[in-house]
Amino acid sequence: MSHKRRLFTLIELLIVIAIIAILAAMLLPALNKARTRARQTRCLGNLKQIGQAVAIYADSSDGNLPPLYYGNYQAPFLQPTLARTVFNVELGASSSAEELLKTMKTPFYCPDVTADSLGTHQHGSFAANLSHVFATSPANAYSPKPRKISGFRRPSQIQMFVDARGGTGRNNWEIACLVEFAGHAANLSGRHNGGANMAKVDGSATWDRREAIIDNRNDLWGHDNQ
Ligand SMILES: [Zn+2]
Ligand SMILES: [Zn+2]
């Protein structure tokens, strides 16, 4: 009897272990999904902060947006200017891996971007809409002449910053309109559930599918602001 009873207990134990294993296997993807979702929400919050930083900058600059470049177009200007004037941090000044990790905690980085994917690029992971927001025209993309926020007809629909792919060089902090420069689609991220977060001209932030951004749905690139 006691022998039989022990055997039964062993089977019970095995069943419990099996159930725990099944539950864990079911729970892990859900946990990962929740974490992915949390990073997407944090990214959206970062873009909202950048949108507000632009508004603060404009408030003290006669309603003008910060210029995309200052003189030499190879030198990033926009993101470091916002970082310096509104958040009091220096982007692109990191001298070590530790410094870079500190910079990556600022609102200029998507929480899904890793230090490894950045290389020497340290000016944030959100690309500025250079064609129709920060430059005066696509033909004059490198003009430092700023636009006024009040000049936009649909400020809640036009994106001024979009989540961009990690990488070195300029590719990650500016993006040309994908209608005229389809090749720039490679700069666009789809790391949040197949889509990207964006900061709109009015300071709000939204998410959209990567394809919708490439297809210029609702003219989110801003063609009525040539
Ligand atoms: Zn992101
Ligand atoms: Zn365009």
TrEMBL record:
<dbReference type="InterPro" id="IPR045584">
    <property type="entry name" value="Pilin-like"/>
</dbReference>
<protein>
    <submittedName>
        <fullName>Prepilin-type N-terminal cleavage/methylation domain-containing protein/prepilin-type processing-associated H-X9-DG protein</fullName>
    </submittedName>
</protein>
<dbReference type="InterPro" id="IPR012902">
    <property type="entry name" value="N_methyl_site"/>
</dbReference>
<keyword id="KW-0812">Transmembrane</keyword>
<keyword id="KW-1133">Transmembrane helix</keyword>
<feature type="transmembrane region" description="Helical">
    <location>
        <begin position="7"/>
        <end position="31"/>
    </location>
</feature>
<keyword id="KW-0472">Membrane</keyword>
